[in-house]
Write a structure and sequence with these properties.
The chain is an all-alpha fold and 169 residues long. The protein has 6 helices and no strands. The relative contact order is 0.13.
């Protein structure tokens, strides 16, 4: 990677981390307010989305499906934003709680069982990637074209010699 690309990537990581600190808890509280169990479902969604969203975006980008790429990127970004705020800082508090007033805890800290939902989402995402990823088999030797002619050509030669007619090739 060139220095120019590394610099852009570093700035992107810094800005994403800052956005995660400021918006992380708000995103979790918004998801939890959607209904009972919605915060846990959001945790599972983030676990799966962080793994599968970027793979789907890359596949859509290769095929030039712009709408699919935009949706998959939004899923991956949302999952990243929600999970990046869960990294513990030096004080032991989650980084998403750094922007909160003193004494206030993140929704995830108040509901520690959501970590199991995130882990389940990560497991489902890993399984989905493993099942859909092309598996490479052990390389096997194939004969070159000179030693093994094309099948149709070989059939014509066999049928021509079986009839008793001379081989025209």
């Amino acid at each position: 990677m060139s220095e120019r690309h590394v610099t852009k990537l570093a700035w992107l990581i810094v800005l994403a981390g800052a956005a995660s600190v400021v918006l992380g808890d708000h995103l979790w509280r918004w998801a939890a307010a959607l209904g009972p169990g919605a915060g846990f479902a959001f945790g599972a969604f983030c676990g799966t989305g962080i793994l599968c969203g970027w793979a789907l975006a890359a596949a859509a980008l290769r095929r030039r499906h712009w709408a699919r790429c935009a949706v998959a990127t939004a899923i991956g970004c949302t999952a990243f934003l929600a999970l990046a705020c869960l990294v513990p800082g030096r004080t032991g508090r989650l980084t998403g709680s750094l922007a909160l007033p003193d004494g206030r805890r993140m929704w995830v800290e108040e509901h520690p069982a959501v970590w199991w939902a995130i882990a389940a989402g990560l497991a489902v995402g890993a399984l989905a990637l493993w099942r859909t990823a092309p598996h490479r088999t052990a390389p096997h030797r194939t004969a070159s074209r000179r030693t093994e002619p094309h099948r149709a050509t070989a059939r014509r030669r066999r049928s021509a010699t079986a009839d008793g007619s001379p081989d025209s090739t």
